[in-house]
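Morning run. Coffee first, then this:
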Amino acid sequence: MRALFFALLLLWALPARALEGLHPGGEAVVASVVDGDTVVLDRPIDGATQVRLTGIQAPKLALGRKNFKDWPLAAAAKKELEAMILGRRVGLFHGPQRMDRHGRLLAHLVAPDGTWLQGEMLNRGLARVYTFADNRDRAAEMYRLEAAARDARRGIWTHPFYAIRGTDPQSLVKDRDTFQVVEGRIQGATVARGVLYLNFGANWRDDFTARVGKDALKLFRDAGLEPEVFQGRRVRLRGWLHDRNGPMIDLSHPEQIEVLEK
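And here it is:
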């Protein structure tokens, strides 16, 4: 009995080491899985039972939302997550922001065997990295896992719905109001009234642009990323695509952009 107790204690010590730097937030059993990045616990923690897996975005199910269709492989992502943790006890680990505007807990989840659920979903090609300015821990490791899955063409990386987009503005029109990963070479990096604009074409009024607002620019500079660093660089960035003098993505934190080459 005593040996079993210490074995279980050691088992639960594994997640804490694996997610060093995050704050332990308790543990609970996963009662149900909503989709590939959202679960429901068997008991409330901090008043909430629903947990959004921080740092990733899995294919979305419609879940009754009007004018919303299931994304490709959404059912597969849910099924994989269910197979991994449904009915199992998980540990919750938090970054700076513990709850979202929908009242869901924001957490990294770890299974008793030490499996980091965000990392496993990325590794299986069933999620993309999706960070926020107030929740961007472990981004570098998540990007590494995403890249490995993409290179191996696992899961979503075989489907054109999730393909990395180029910066041609005409091709991006159909993707307006969606979350996209875009890759291209920065033609110009300009600061105007405290806002950084990364231009991917000669005509900023029509071409694809990334915008870094004043608060975000401070985060970039704190990370050693002055505007001139981006001049001429080939990058991969991600975010919600909207239209403002051509297609644009707003960058709220440095982890949204990967510098691929000089």
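Residues 164-261 form a domain with the OB fold (Dihydrolipoamide Acetyltransferase, E2P) fold (CATH 2.40.50.140). Good start to the day.
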